[in-house]
């Protein structure tokens, strides 16, 4: 599916017409939209989905699955340096009773209340197949012109990651993670490029490198491993929902203690979108990450 997804996006995105009301379209964690009538605030918009046996197992409590769906979207808002405001939910389910769907929706609603998001509506549907898929659209805000994109990394910048990486499914971090919203807001105006690590450090670093038209050197020995994680998996498994960003070297010296742990894992080099190790060897594309 990862290969087909890439094919579809490569063919589709160039066909989408630009519009003056969309300063940032497809390609970042969120789209950036202008409010009608000029404003000091811009709208962040993102949509994500959750599928059984892809993002969670069939025995996952529905409340935790629902919360994960919203938190995946909150992580996208964090990666743009924004604040979440509103959400719309859809659930299509087959083989589940009404109680399961209700518990899933309550999980989303409880998580929304925790993070100050207003769940404004959505849609429910049945499926013929014994599975379920849910989608959530999130809207947030950011000061006009201040959204942190993937495309601003410059040679000489340091590359950082928040928290810990790897072993997300076995440790259940993929259900229990906290979106790095406070960290994202702190990095607004400080980070030059940023995205969240959902598909693996190498793949997401490559996305930043390509958007910024630079190379990124990753020192794998400096990756902060989560308990039980092995380095190969930590580099490519994904589902970490940490922030990966480029910023002027030395940012760690001003990092607030109350925020998530910060680790410098590499640097930005002149180049054209490659990810290299500390010896300058390019990481093989087959180890890139998990596209889902």
The strand order across the widest sheet is 7-9-6-10-8-11
Q: Describe the biggest sheet?
A: 6 strands, mixed
Question: How many strand elements?
Answer: 11
First-residue to last-residue Cα separation: 7 Å
Contiguous low-pLDDT stretches (5 residues minimum) are: none
| N-to-C order of helices and strands | HEEHEHEEEHHHEHEHEEE
Q: What name does the CATH topology of the largest domain carry? A: 60s Ribosomal Protein L30, Chain: A
Measured as a percent range, the helix fraction is 25-40%
Number of H- or I-type helical stretches? 8
Computed Rg? 19 Å
Strand percentage, roughly?
25-35%
Which helices and strands, and how do they pair?
Layout lengths: L1 H11 L18 E4 L6 E11 L10 H18 L3 E11 L4 H17 L3 E9 L5 E12 L14 E5 L5 H4 L1 H4 L4 H7 L5 E5 L3 H12 L1 E5 L12 H6 L5 E6 L14 E9 L4 E2 L16
Parallel strand pairs: 3-4, 8-11
Antiparallel strand pairs: 1-2, 2-5, 3-5, 6-9, 6-10, 7-9, 8-10
Helix pairs in contact: 2-3, 2-6
Structural notes for this entry:
By secondary structure, this protein is of the alpha+beta class. It contains 8 helices and 11 strands. It folds into 2 domains: 2-143, 60s Ribosomal Protein L30, Chain: A (2-Layer Sandwich), CATH 3.30.1330; 158-287, Phosphoribosyl-aminoimidazole Synthetase, Chain A, domain 2. Helices cover 27% and strands 27% of the residues. A 6-stranded mixed sheet has the order 7-9-6-10-8-11, with helices on both faces. The longest helix has 18 residues, at 62-79. It starts with a helix and ends in a 16-residue tail after the last strand.
């Amino acid at each position: 599916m990862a290969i087909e997804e890439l094919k579809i996006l490569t063919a589709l995105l160039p066909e989408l017409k630009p519009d003056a009301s969309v300063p940032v379209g497809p390609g970042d964690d969120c789209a950036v939209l202008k409010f009608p009538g000029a404003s000091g605030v811009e709208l962040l918009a993102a949509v994500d989905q959750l599928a059984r046996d892809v993002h969670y197992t069939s025995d996952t409590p529905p409340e935790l699955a629902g919360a994960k769906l919203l938190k995946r979207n909150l992580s996208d808002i964090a990666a743009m340096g924004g604040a979440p405001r509103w959400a719309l939910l859809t659930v299509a389910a087959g083989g589940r009773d009404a109680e399961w769907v209700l518990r899933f929706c309550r999980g989303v609603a409880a998580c929304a209340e925790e993070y100050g998001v207003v769940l404004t509506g959505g849609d429910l549907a049945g499926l013929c197949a014994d599975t379920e898929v849910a989608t959530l659209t999130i809207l947030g805000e950011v000061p006009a012109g201040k959204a942190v994109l993937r495309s601003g990394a410059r040679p000489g910048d340091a590359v950082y990651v928040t928290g810990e990486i790897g072993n997300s499914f076995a440790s259940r971090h993929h259900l229990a993670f906290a979106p790095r919203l406070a960290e994202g807001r702190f990095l607004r105006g400080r980070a030059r490029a940023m995205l969240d690590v959902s598909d693996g450090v190498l793949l997401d670093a490559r996305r930043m490198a390509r958007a910024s038209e630079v190379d990124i050197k990753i020192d794998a020995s400096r990756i902060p491993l989560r308990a039980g994680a092995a380095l190969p998996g930590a580099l490519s498994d994904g589902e970490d929902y940490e922030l990966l960003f480029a910023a002027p070297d030395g940012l760690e010296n001003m990092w607030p203690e109350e925020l998530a742990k910060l680790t410098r894992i590499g640097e930005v080099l002149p180049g054209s979108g490659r990810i290299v190790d500390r010896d300058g060897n390019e990481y093989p594309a087959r180890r890139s990450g998990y596209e889902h």
